[in-house]
Amino acid sequence: MPLDAATLDRLRAKLDAREAELREEVRTVRDDLGGDVESREPRNQVEDSGERGEELIRESVRHAEMEADLDEAVEIAAARERMQDGSYGECELCGCEIPLARLEVQPAARRCAPCQEKWERTHAVGVHIPRVP
């Protein structure tokens, strides 16, 4: 059963709110990292190589968090496109309707829960933290 206009509006508002949160998180991380992580010196004076390693790990984690936020923003944009073309709420793998309860929790969902589980088992999902020299 297709989603009615009021439900779509409510889900669109959730997407808008989450996108605003993501923009703020990305802005905060960029400010914290001071731009290009690889080419800059650390903000704080580091006493030894162990502390420098810890600083690099913290920066790597913050950078990975920012990348995840940017990926989620792309998913939000894709959800809006699906709303426009009428395919929103349809699983991209099996074609079945994504339950409203799932869309309420994850409004950018592309797949129903069973297909999402299958997809996650076959696709690498996670954060890679580079080794510290």
What does this structure look like?
- With 133 residues, this protein is mainly α.
- The protein has a single domain, classed as Four Helix Bundle (Hemerythrin (Met), subunit A).
- The protein is 62% helix and 0% strand.
- The chain has four helices and no strands.
- Helix 1 (5-33) runs antiparallel to helix 2 (49-85).
- It is elongated.
- The model is unreliable at 36-40 (pLDDT under 50).
Describe how the helices and strands are arranged.
Layout: H1 5-33, H2 49-85, H3 100-105, H4 113-122
Helix pairs in contact: 1-2
Overall 3D form: elongated
Note the beta-strand portion: under 5%
Number of helices: 4
N-end to C-end Cα span: 55 Å
Main sheet makeup: none
Helix content: 55-70%
The CATH class assignment is Mainly Alpha
Please identify which CATH superfamily we are dealing with: DksA, coiled-coil domain
Helical/strand content category? mainly alpha
Low-confidence residue ranges: 36-40
Cα-atom Rg, whole angstroms? Answer: 19 Å
In short:
With 133 residues, this protein is mostly helical. The protein has four helices and no strands.
Which key phrases capture this entry?
133 residues, 0% strand, Four Helix Bundle (Hemerythrin (Met), subunit A)
